[in-house]
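Section 5.1 Outputs to date
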Amino acid sequence: MTHEHTPGIPEAFKDKVMHLAMTVAGGNTLFMSDSFEPVAGNRSLNLSLGFESEDEARNAFAGLSEGGVVNYPLEKQPWGASYGELQDKFGVTWMIVHETK
């Protein structure tokens, strides 16, 4: 949904996204919107997803890394969780975590 029908919004912002919802693995929903502030330089977005199942974590990692770059493979870490980090094909950094119980 854009700001097209929002009263009082300047014409330059009419095509900006007001509400975007995306369902990700595990049934989690991410809500996003465009920024009204200028985006400059190396501004980036980092998101972290936690999974109860190792299989879900691995599937999410594999899917998000398609066409992207793996920064850290999804592996067991000294603190007890599995952790991996990647940058998807859109330049968003994802941190995938599976906590072992």
